[in-house]
Specification:
The complex is a heterodimer of chains A (763) and B (178).
Chain A (H helix, E strand, L loop, with lengths): L16 H6 L14 E7 L5 E7 L1 H5 L3 E6 L7 E2 L5 E2 L4 E2 L5 E7 L2 H9 L2 E6 L6 H5 L30 E3 L2 H7 L2 E9 L12 E7 L3 E6 L4 H11 L5 E6 L13 H14 L3 E4 L2 H7 L5 E10 L5 E11 L7 H15 L5 E8 L14 H19 L3 H8 L6 E3 L5 E3 L6 H11 L1 H4 L8 E3 L2 E10 L9 E7 L5 E4 L9 H13 L6 E3 L2 E2 L14 H28 L6 E4 L2 E4 L2 E7 L9 E7 L9 E10 L5 E11 L6 H9 L42 E7 L21 H13 L10 H7 L14
Parallel strand pairs in A: 1-14, 12-13, 16-17, 23-24, 31-32
Antiparallel strand pairs in A: 1-7, 2-6, 2-8, 3-7, 4-5, 9-17, 10-15, 11-12, 11-14, 13-25, 15-16, 18-19, 20-21, 21-30, 22-23, 22-29, 26-27, 27-28, 30-31
Chain B lengths: L17 E6 L2 E6 L13 H8 L18 E4 L2 E4 L11 E4 L14 H8 L9 H14 L5 H7 L10 H15 L1
Parallel strand pairs in B: 1-5
Antiparallel strand pairs in B: 1-2, 3-4, 3-5
Helix pairs in contact in B: 2-5
Chain lengths: 763, 178
């Protein structure tokens, strides 16, 4: 690219770096509040029960207790999509469901009070498996969801929100196929994104109908909107967003903890803080959706997919807030991965008596692909196709199209990723390592090597709307007024780079406000890799607008047209006549100028991530070791090299690649209890077990904004799990179709241990 | 990373009324009792640092000794402050993230500077604990190999996967110390 930038594409220290490394960053739990009360939640020990009676007198009598709330004490506020899930209800629907809320002068007192509440339950039969839940006579979670089928469609995506992939003629498609495969595949280990900082909130209620919340979220403005609707559109909500200790999607919706804090503040008139314990985080905050697909695929020998037909069951746990959105995006993403004219893919979202599913990186597409790619792989094996060649042939190309989440058809107008695939494959050594389906790459005594590949991409890089203001000052500084909070991607620093680039100011002269929904503008938040193009687009537009206003104001002083001016380091000059110059101060010391920027959604571009993995399997113990990972992508223009590297390395964390290796939430399907709700039993990758990682990042300019960039962070987790399954299958010479590939599953596939018999899904 | 349990002095706890701590070079005398500025027998060092003394640089994540987020130095060794009772820390010298660097000049500790230079964090929540673990490692072994760095940090959780950049940052300091 011919563009030479001052900051874009260069490694610059994060703006918040010094605060982070000195411990000065104030995360939610680090902020001091006067008269603060501490909230705790009494949670149900049963997966499904009616609360017959609650005696809270003992708890209320404990010194320091300021409020004890049960379902009888709270307004009829409801969350979920549609809003059928009461904040506190007379019925509990999973082990961990909120039964009562306590506010007290200390955490210890609140904890003690929880133990003094006496609850009598009428225990109901519970259901933990999607297909069991769909059977006639199965326990019903909600009267509003007959048969436990959650109402399809995501209202936020409009009236035609994508609910399925149906087009063409699948019968004709199967007739044209050279090979047809059919089967049931799942991704049901419900990994937890598990950001390091637990969910939390501080709320301060002011009578009669106003609440201010301090949130830890990747989208604090969205909280204001979400809560406004949950509170029956009768409460004025203000949110303060600050640094967030990781989210990976999950904290995008933190309404549970936020509504608890609000109810307790409303009852006490004092600020109330609730921070979930790690056990609550693991067992009572959101997981990935469960995914099970029964489908049939038709394919020609050349890798042309002729038809896809089947059902996709999505387990959302005890409620759905965003699962319909994930289904819509997943259905869009599958078309981006596989170019096929004939589809009949019908999703059904099912509620079961376990903790709820929510947003996690990969947003529906990872869940669908983790079930679908194993089926495609069987067809590729039959057709004798190399998966890299298959993906290269099928991944969306300019001129192709897809139904996106709003139900509309979009024609793809961005780049062809063939170059990224070829570069990645070459650097990985795919051609040398790939020996065919179910053939190991290497045999070394009892150890066998295998390789696999996965792919993912989404058209949400331009999703949703953003607004920003950029205010320029006579002293040659600028401030970005925005509701973006920092949740780890470094995007706040990147926006400062973008604005500094447009205004040609030193980085230290550009700053950014904290997020406060009272005065910072609308912002959907950084999600779905939209930060770079969508939010960045609003930032650039705001900076351009500020510059335009500045030039219009000073142009007469320089005797030139506004278009003839340029500015560098706070000095405006006439292009080609550098002698004619004037400092920003000329705008007048009693004035600032504010530019406004807006981004309108654009679904005509998709990002791309392909992940190659190499594993080693111990054929005696069944242990799988991830030796190497290579991610390849094209982002148009890198904004911040180390920041992007961090995002791609994130493929291992947050329920990504490791969800195929060892990560799982273990649900006891007889009691509904999660058995590994602590960070010792929930497995995570440590420093001592790092695979070699390489990131191949191409920069083919995109028709996005002036920096020709798009985002690629969110998608990093998605291609890896299927690649691992493929690699391990190849290594051992047997198909493995269940996540994660624990030693037990490997040894079972090898016939060295007997398969575990699982009790039915209902208790 | 091993949790260092301090056995000596435990018997005295009942009649002990004051805890003497040196934190980041500053001497503290804390009364044992139940007032807000007191140390209760059940208080962890993490609680005392954060809630009683306002040293919020030390973070708590799992609160169960599994994630290393709350790591501080006690007599120059890494300890998990969420698993250490304050009443067991009498006469100990504690260093937290706030105690790194040179206060008069405002100069950061080389390990902090290396973390900035390598963008060795994403959300940053686990970073103080990782830096303190790295500091303990470097105190003990000023020139660790990459494998030793990985082993030394193996008790520290990071979900964003800053690991690769952290290892580079610590190795840069390792060479610097050498």
């Amino acid at each position: 690219m011919a563009d030479t930038y001052r900051y874009i594409g260069k490694a610059t220290p994060r703006k918040d770096a010094a605060e982070i490394v000195t411990g000065k960053t104030r995360y939610l739990n680090d902020i001091k509040f006067p008269n603060l009360l501490y909230g705790k939640v009494l949670r149900s020990p049963y997966p499904h029960a009616i609360i017959k009676r609650i005696d809270k007198t003992k708890a209320q009598g404990l010194a320091g207790v300021k409020a004890v709330l049960t379902w009888e004490d709270v307004p009829d506020w409801k969350g979920g999509t549609p809003r059928y899930t009461r904040i506190l209800d007379a019925k509990v629907r999973y082990v961990g469901d909120a039964v009562a809320l306590v506010a007290a002068t200390s955490e210890d007192i609140a904890r003690e009070a929880i133990g003094l509440i006496d609850v009598e339950y009428e225990i109901l039969p519970a259901v933990f498996d999607m297909e069991e839940a769909l059977k006639p006579g199965a326990p019903q979670l909600y009267d509003e969801f007959p048969g436990n089928v959650v109402t399809p469609g995501a209202p936020i995506f409009g009236p035609h929100s994508l609910k399925q992939v149906v087009m063409g003629d699948v019968e004709k498609g199967f007739e044209e196929a050279d090979v047809i495969t059919e089967g049931t595949f799942g991704y049901e280990n419900i990994p937890n994104p598990l950001p390091v900082e637990a969910p939390g909130a501080v709320a301060l209620w002011e009578e009669p109908n106003k609440v201010t919340l301090w949130v830890t979220n990747q989208s604090s403005y969205l909280d204001k909107i979400t809560l406004f609707h949950i509170f029956g559109r009768r409460v004025e909500v203000r949110t303060h967003g600050g640094p967030c200790g990781g989210s990976f999607g999950s904290k995008m919706m933190s309404w549970q903890v936020q509504t608890y804090a609000t109810l307790l503040s409303r009852a006490t008139g004092q600020p109330v803080k609730i921070v979930f314990t790690k056990e609550e985080h693991l067992a009572a905050f959101v997981l990935r959706p469960g995914s099970r697909m029964h489908a049939k695929v038709g394919m020609k020998k050349d890798g042309t997919v002729t038809a896809v037909s089947g059902t996709w069951l999505i387990d959302t746990g005890y409620y759905s807030m965003t699962t319909q959105s994930q289904v819509a995006v997943g259905c869009g993403e599958v078309q981006i991965m596989v170019r096929c004219p004939n589809w009949n893919l019908k999703p059904t979202i099912v509620c079961t008596n376990r903790n709820a599913s929510g947003i996690v990186r990969g947003f529906g597409g990872q869940e669908l692909k983790c079930a679908f790619i194993p089926l495609l792989s069987l067809a590729m094996e039959k057709a004798g196709l190399d998966p890299v060649e298959f993906f290269k042939k099928n991944y969306v190309k300019p001129g192709d199209g897809y139904f996106w989440r709003d139900g509309n058809w979009y024609t793809y107008r961005a780049i062809d990723y063939t170059k990224a695939i070829e570069k990645g494959a070459e650097q990985f050594g795919w051609k040398e390592k790939w020996k065919g389906w179910l053939v190991p790459t290497a045999v070394n005594g009892k150890k066998r090597g295998g390789v696999g590949v996965g792919v993912h991409g989404n058209a949400d890089v331009g999703e949703d709307a953003s607004e920003a203001y950029v205010r320029v000052h006579p002293d040659g500084t600028a401030v970005i007024i925005s509701s973006v909070t920092e949740h780890g991607t470094g995007q706040r620093s990147n926006y400062i780079k973008m604005v500094a680039e447009v205004l040609q100011l030193p980085l230290e002269r550009v700053s950014m406000t904290p997020s406060d929904s009272l005065f910072t503008p609308y912002e959907f938040g950084p999600a779905g890799s939209r930060g770079t193009y969508a939010i960045g687009g609003a930032m650039i537009a705001a900076a351009d607008d500020a510059k335009k206003k500045l030039f219009e104001l000073v142009a007469p002083m320089l005797g030139a047209a506004p278009q003839a001016l340029e500015t560098v380091d706070g000095i405006i000059s006439v292009k080609g006549d550098p002698g004619k110059k004037i400092p920003w101060k000329a705008m007048g010391v009693d004035r600032t100028l504010t530019g406004y920027g807006h981004f309108e959604p654009d679904y005509t571009m998709a990002n791309f991530m392909m992940t190659f993995v190499e594993v080693e399997v111990d054929m005696e113990t069944g242990k799988v070791t991830l030796l190497r990972v290579l991610n390849t992508t094209d982002v148009g223009q890198i904004i911040d090299p180390p920041g992007l590297e961090g995002q791609l390395n994130g493929c291992l964390g947050s329920g990504g690649i490791d969800s195929a290796l060892f990560e799982e939430t273990i649900l006891d399907r007889s009691t509904g209890h999660i058995l590994n709700a602590n960070m010792i039993d929930y497995k995570w990758r440590s420093f001592s077990e790092l695979p070699v990682i390489d990131n191949v990042i191409l920069e083919t300019p995109f028709p996005s904004h002036r920096f020709h960039a798009i985002g690629a962070g969110e998608v990093a987790t998605a291609p890896g799990p299927t690649a691992v399954l493929m690699a391990v299958s190849n290594a051992i010479g047997q198909w493995l179709h269940h996540y994660p590939v624990t030693p037990e599953k490997v040894l079972t596939a090898l016939g060295k241990v007997l398969p575990k018999k699982r009790k039915g899904g209902a208790a | 990373m091993a949790v260092k349990m301090i056995k000596q002095g435990r018997k005295k706890t009942a009649e002990q009324e004051r805890i003497h701590l040196t934190i980041n070079g500053k001497a503290y005398e804390l009364l044992v009792g139940s007032e807000p500025d007191h140390v209760e027998a059940s208080h962890t060092l993490a609680h005392t640092l954060r809630e009683t003394l306002g040293l919020i640089g030390t973070k708590v994540s799992c609160d169960n000794g599994a994630c290393g987020c709350c790591t501080v130095l006690m007599d120059n060794k890494a300890v998990l402050s969420c698993m250490t009772l304050t009443i067991e820390c009498d006469k100990r010298e504690i260093t937290t993230i706030e105690g790194l660097g040179d206060k008069p000049t405002g100069k950061l500790d080389p390990i902090q500077q290396a973390f900035i230079d390598h963008t060795a964090f994403q959300c940053g929540f686990c970073t103080p604990g990782i830096i303190m673990s790295a500091k303990a490692l470097l105190n003990e072994n000023p020139s660790p190999t990459e494998e030793e760095v990985k082993e030394g940090l193996s008790g520290n959780f990071c979900r964003c996967i800053s690991h690769y950049q952290v290892v580079k940052a610590v190795m840069a300091t390792s060479r610097g110390v050498r």
